[in-house]
Structure formats: structure tokens, C-alpha cells
Specification:
With about 725 residues, the protein is an alpha+beta fold. It contains 21 helices and 35 strands. About 30% of the residues lie in helices and about 25% in strands. The strands form 12 sheets. Strands 4, 5, 6, 7, 12, 20 and 21 form a 7-stranded mixed sheet that branches. A 5-stranded antiparallel sheet has the order 14-13-25-24-23, sandwiched between helices. Strand 4 and strand 5 form a beta hairpin. It is found in: Membrane.
């Protein structure tokens, strides 16, 4: 016995000496085992980058959501006074089915068919992205029915606060599970997909020591690696103008039910896209309304543009000194080799001038003009205008279009927009040359990309001149002719006239190629109706392109009616919102704003009032640090001018202010101003003269221009104002 126990003692003593000396047991490092047992790691989730409009208003962002978990293992309740696992599968499935998009039987099957030893189960997509309101209601019912084992884990989901809003531009992102079971938000369409890498953040982590139950051990240090949120993408899109577009499209869709619609609004001075939308459209959060078409029709699909192309044929002829508006031609039909083309009025209008021919949108006038210009010279100009090649807009999958010029007949039909194909964004880019005195601007939608973790601007887009296909004099002459299509007695675009603003543009009625076989659709409203216009025509600030395909027209309507209703509504509202001076005979002549920065506010206020402006001081007065609008901006009488000084700010009377001006006040003052609606201010939550700090929210209510400027007469005039 003594020898046996003595031997065991020395064996144990030797083993202890070995472990102390080597730090190993059974070939494993004990410190590593201890580290593995007691080390814990907590993930710090990174936010996906936000997408905002040009004024910083939210378009897409991550928001708090919840993930549903059902704990099945009875071990979860060990040592707890409360039951921590699901006991009543039947009743639990019945309650959950009320709150998540999954049938009771499917929920029950998920729990009852779980493998033996499974600790918990989830419910896939149906159990994710639950809102706070849903969770509160579900928790209450679980508590009322004394159910157990249901947990709600904080998560993130992509939030699109504006609903159906530039959906084919913005796209959408959704949760996706990889092969390792990791769930992340991935862009699947639009900007969310194109800039997925920039928008995706990097999760951080917290390393710490804990006991066997997971509690942090005392006097241990946490090693924190901060999460890096995804980059913020600021667009050139203006949320207010985009909403004008969405509203106009919704109204037209309700009345005419067209197969497709598209609107692009651009700043011709810079190439910035201020709005872009199409129908059908969808809600990015739910994907409701998403069809088999995932393409952004503004640049990924091509069209035959129809007569809107005539403005570029005209521009080429004027540039080459081949345009004589008072010369005559015989309208009706024109034959080239074995092909005869005809005007929309097959008998023509007799012998008319080229100017009248353009106003009437005569195809035959283009044919005779092409004789003067030379068809190959014409094709050269089209390429200078950017047709047949991609614009280079900062969006993927842009189509180049095809300019047909193999045969003389193809060059002829191209002169009035048939045969050759273009993208709508090419049409807008080409129109900037006419609106911008010959300087064609490259279109873009990304203003800048910023790293929110450091504040560093990663990429910033500046306006880029693409080419100068025509001279400034030619551009001005083209604009005069385009204006005459609206104001002229024979013009086809009379219904596109704006209240208070001059406008010019060209209508289009394009045939639609058959989806199978050759030829075109015919009869009824099987056409693509369009208008490419700009205003004010003397110095265009906006270009708007509207397309409506195959509308269902009431008996008293024609194809240009839905196009005009959308165009006039969007253009008038946008020009007013941007504070563009109306061209009104009775309006006071616009004055250029002087530079008041560095001057005393009292002196500046006095001078501005003498000039007929409405100065608003942000702060307590004294030296002016910033003014808005900038010096040399032309303003009409009674226009608001913001003067920023130091000190506390008293609220002005916002009544009648545009949303853009309120946003400028918000930016300069730093106050928490919250806006409801679009258009112009009608109410505010705190009264004029109230002194507040940055923690006091102020709510202002806005209304659309059509409502504010509605005439006070007995006859209902709202439809006339909206539709033009």
C-alpha cells in the first residue's frame, strides 16, 4: 500500500512540475485554453451609409429594427425563476402568425421539427426587420397570454422615408445571408447596388474577459475596435423637385394609365440631375410595384425620340448658316429614291415657310432642310451632340444608342427622330448645349461622397463641360424658334405654356417598334408622346424631359395632354421653388444683390429695405458673417435676404418662404427646423420673434404652389393650374 500510494504521489507531483514548467497539458497550452474559455467578443455593428439629397435631406438610411427568436432548449430555464423557453408551441405559433408574414403551420413546423438539442430557431425573412411598434404589440400579447421563450434582438434595416421616390435611381438594399450564416445588408439595385462597397461599413468589436457565466471579470481591460460606418452619398437630386415629379406622375397615372412614363429635370448650367423618375415604380422598402423591368429607363433603355430630335437638326442647320426661316417649301410629302415620307397631315398645309414647318412639326420640312445642310454633315453634328455614345453619367449600364447612317433614307428619318435610337439622358445632355449657350454639360447625380467617421470628402463632383457643338449665337437662335412652338399661332406646343415664365421646347410623337417582328405599332394611342423643354427661355435654369407611352386617352384628349399636364406642373412648381424670377409684364424689374458680408447688420438692413428686399438677421446683429443669396444674384422686390451674425436667433415669420429658403435658414442658424409638406410655408409652430436655441424644435407646414396660388373665384380652377 505504501509503495502504491507513494508511487501515485510522486507521479502526481511530477505531473504538476511538468505543467508548471511547460504550461502544457495533453499537448495543449493551458493559457490558450483559459483564453478560449473566458475571452468574450461583442460585435459593434456599423451603419450602412446614408443617401441624402443635395440639401442633406434623408433618402435612405439604416434604422433600428428587431429580429425574432424562439428559444426551444429547456436548459435556458435552468437556474431561472422564470420560464425562458417556449412551452406552448401551438399558442405561440398562433400569436406570432398575427404579427409576422408567416402562416401558423409554418411557424409551428419550424419549432417542432428543429433538430434535437437545438437551442433556438429564427424565422428567416419573416422574422427580421420588425418595427418598434410591432414588437411592442407582440410583447404585450405574449405577456397577456403568459407565453414564454420569445426574444427580440436589436437589428438594423434599410429605411426609405419617402416611399415611392426615384426608386429606379436609388434602388434598394436588403438583408442577405452568406455561406457562413452571417447576415448583412447588400445593395441589390440602383445606387444601393452600384455604390454598395462605399455604403457598406465595417463592424467593430469589444474584446473582454469574463467568468464562466459571461460576466465581465473585475479589473480587466476592454479592447475596443470602433465600427466604421459606411460612406454618405450626397446626390444632386433635390427632394422637393423630385416630389413635384412624383406627384405629377401619380396624377397622370391615375387619369391615363399609360404603359410607361419618365421625367428628368436637370440644371443646364451644371449638368446636375435634380429629379429622375419613371412609371411603373416601386416602394424600396417593400418592393411593392417592382416589375420584371429592373432597368433605369433614363439611361439603360433606348427609344426612338420622334420630333424632339428636330431641335438638333435645326441647331445644325443654323450653325452651318443653312437655316432661312422665311424660305418656302411644299409640305405634305417628300420622296427619296423608292421611299416616300409624309407629314402628320398627309395632304400637308400647302406651301409654307420653314419656320411654320418647324412650328407644325413637319417631317417634310426636315427633309428639305437636310438637302440644304447635307445629310452627312447632319450626322457629324449628331455625334458632336453626344448621340451614339454614352454620356458618362455616374451610373452603370448606360446604353449608347445607335445612329443609323448607312443609307440616305436612314439619315433622313433620323432628322425627325425615327429609326435611330437614343437614351433620354442623351437628349437632356444635348439640350444643355442649346440652353447653356453652346456649352454641353455632362450629366451627373452624385454630388459628393463623404466618410462620416473622419469627415473627409472622398469624392466630389464638379460640373464638367462635355463639348461645344454649336455657338452661343446659334443656341440663342434655336431657343427663339423653340419658344415660337409655344407662342406661335401654328405652334404644336401651345398647351406647354407656363404661368409667369417663358418656355421653349419641342413636342414628339414617336412610333413604337413591335416587340416581335419588324415594323411599328399602329392605331389608337400606340405612340411615345414627349416634350423636351426649357425655361425661362431667355436664360434657361431648368430642362425638363417628359415621356408618356401608350396612354389610355379619354375621347376629349390627345396624346400631348398628359405630357403637358406633367411638364407644366413640374416646371412651374420647380421654378417658383427655386425663386426664379417670373417673366411678368407687371412684375418689378429684378435687381442684383450687393455684397454685405463684413458690414454692420443695421446698415445692411437699412440698405436692403431701401432696395425693396426683406432682410432677415440670423443672430443678435453686428458684423455680417454670411449672406444668402450670394452677391450679384438677381432678386425681385420683396425677396428674402438672409444675413448671418453672431448670438442667439429670433424666429422670423416664415409665411410664404420656399422650402429652399427655409433650408438655407436652417443651415445658417443651426436650429432644429422640421418641415411637413412641399412648396411654400403656410404655418409655423412657434411665433415670430421667439428666441430659441438649437434644442428647441420648430415645425413649419408647407403647401404646394398650386394650392397657395389658387385663384379665389367661384369656378374651380385647380385643374387648370396643375395641368396647364
Amino acid at each position: 500500500m505504501f509503495l502504491t500510494f507513494g508511487g501515485l504521489f510522486f507521479l502526481l507531483f511530477g505531473r504538476m512540475l511538468f505543467i508548471q514548467a511547460t504550461g502544457q497539458a495533453e499537448g495543449k497550452v493551458l493559457t490558450a485554453l483559459a483564453e478560449a474559455k473566458y475571452a468574450r467578443e461583442s460585435t459593434l455593428k456599423a451603419d450602412r451609409g446614408t443617401i441624402v439629397d443635395r440639401n442633406g435631406e434623408l433618402i435612405a438610411a439604416d434604422t433600428l429594427s428587431y429580429r425574432l427568436v424562439a428559444v426551444l432548449s429547456e436548459k435556458a430555464s435552468n437556474g431561472s425563476k422564470k420560464t425562458m423557453h417556449v412551452k406552448d408551441y401551438e399558442a405561440t405559433a398562433e400569436v406570432l402568425a398575427k404579427y409576422i408574414p408567416l402562416e401558423k403551420e409554418a411557424i409551428l413546423s419550424r419549432m417542432t421539427n428543429a433538430k434535437e438539442g437545438t437551442w433556438q430557431v429564427e424565422f428567416g425573412k419573416a422574422g427580421r426587420d420588425l418595427s418598434h411598434e410591432t414588437v411592442l404589440a407582440l410583447k404585450q400579447e405574449i405577456e397577456d397570454k403568459k407565453l414564454s421563450g420569445i426574444l427580440f434582438i436589436e437589428d438594423q434595416k434599410r429605411f426609405y422615408p419617402n416611399g415611392v421616390f426615384a426608386s429606379y435611381l436609388i434602388g434598394f438594399a436588403m438583408k442577405e445571408e452568406d455561406e457562413q450564416g452571417n447576415i448583412s445588408t447588400v445593395g441589390k439595385m440602383g445606387l444601393e447596388k452600384t455604390y454598395n462597397k462605399e455604403l457598406t461599413g465595417t463592424d467593430g468589436k469589444v474584446d473582454f474577459q469574463s467568468d464562466g457565466w459571461g460576466f465581465v471579470l473585475p479589473k480587466t481591460e476592454k479592447n475596443i475596435v470602433a465600427a466604421q460606418d459606411g460612406h454618405e452619398i450626397q446626390l444632386t437630386i433635390d427632394k422637393t423637385i423630385q416630389n413635384f415629379v412624383e406627384d405629377a406622375l401619380n396624377r397622370a397615372n391615375a387619369v391615363y394609365s399609360p404603359k410607361k412614363m419618365l421625367v428628368i429635370v436637370a440644371n443646364p448650367k451644371t449638368g446636375e440631375i435634380l429629379a429622375m423618375s419613371q412609371r411603373p415604380a416601386f416602394h424600396p422598402s417593400t418592393r411593392e410595384g417592382l416589375t420584371e423591368n429592373w432597368l433605369n429607363d433614363a439611361l439603360e433603355n433606348t427609344i426612338e425620340p420622334g420630333s424632339t430630335m428636330k431641335m438638333f437638326t435645326l441647331a445644325a442647320a443654323i450653325e452651318e448658316n443653312k437655316w432661312d426661316p422665311n424660305a418656302y417649301f411644299k409640305s405634305g410629302q417628300y420622296t427619296i429614291f423608292d421611299r416616300t415620307i409624309r407629314d402628320v397631315n398627309r395632304d400637308g398645309w400647302g406651301t409654307i415657310t420653314y419656320l411654320e414647318g418647324f412650328q407644325r412639326s413637319s417631317n417634310v420640312s426636315m427633309a428639305y432642310l437636310l438637302e440644304r445642310l447635307g445629310d452627312r454633315t447632319f450626322i457629324d453634328y449628331l455625334r458632336k451632340f453626344g448621340f451614339g455614345e454614352r454620356t458618362g453619367i455616374d451610373l452603370p449600364n448606360e446604353a449608347p444608342g445607335i445612329i443609323l447612317d448607312r443609307y440616305p433614307s436612314e439619315r433622313l428619318t433620323t432628322s425627325y427622330g425615327q429609326g435611330s435610337t437614343v437614351t433620354p439622358i442623351q437628349m437632356v445632355q444635348a439640350a444643355t448645349a442649346i440652353a447653356n449657350n453652346g456649352n454641353m454639360m455632362k450629366p451627373y447625380v452624385i454630388d459628393k461622397i463623404t466618410d462620416p467617421n473622419t469627415g473627409e470628402v472622398i469624392n466630389e463632383h464638379e460640373p464638367e463641360k462635355h463639348d461645344s457643338p454649336i455657338s452661343a449665337d446659334t443656341a440663342k437662335e434655336v431657343r427663339k424658334v423653340l419658344a415660337s412652338t409655344v407662342t406661335g399661332e401654328k405652334g404644336t406646343a401651345k398647351k406647354f405654356a407656363l404661368n409667369g415664365y417663358t418656355v421653349g421646347g419641342k413636342t414628339g410623337t414617336a412610333e413604337i417598334p413591335k416587340t416581335s417582328g419588324s415594323g411599328y405599332l399602329s392605331g389608337g394611342s400606340n405612340y411615345l408622346y414627349s416634350f423636351l423643354g426649357m425655361a425661362p427661355i431667355e436664360d434657361p435654369q431648368l430642362i425638363t424631359y417628359v415621356l408618356v407611352q401608350q396612354p389610355q386617352l379619354p375621347i376629349d384628349k390627345v396624346g400631348s395632354d398628359p405630357v403637358a399636364e406633367v411638364f407644366t406642373s413640374v416646371m412651374e412648381s420647380s421654378l417658383k421653388y427655386l425663386n426664379i424670377v417670373p417673366d411678368d409684364e407687371n412684375a418689378t424689374e429684378a435687381k442684383a444683390l450687393k455684397d454685405y458680408t463684413g458690414k454692420d447688420s443695421a446698415e445692411a438692413v437699412s440698405q436692403l429695405e431701401q432696395e425693396g428686399f426683406r432682410p432677415v438677421v440670423i443672430g443678435e446683429g453686428g458684423k455680417i458673417e454670411v449672406q444668402y443669396p450670394l452677391p450679384n444674384t438677381k432678386l425681385t422686390e420683396n425677396a428674402v435676404v438672409l444675413l448671418k451674425t453672431g448670438g442667439e436667433t429670433a424666429l422670423p415669420d416664415f409665411t410664404g418662404w420656399s422650402k429652399k429658403m427655409v433650408l438655407s435658414f436652417k443651415m445658417l442658424s443651426g436650429l432644429d427646423i422640421r418641415m411637413n409638406g412641399e412648396g411654400f410655408v403656410t404655418e409655423q409652430s412657434l411665433s415670430y420673434g421667439t428666441v430659441i436655441d438649437q434644442n428647441d424644435p420648430v415645425v413649419v407646414q408647407l403647401q404646394a404652389p398650386a394650392e397657395i396660388h389658387k385663384p379665389q373665384v367661384e369656378e374651380p380652377e385647380e385643374e387648370k393650374i396643375v395641368g396647364g
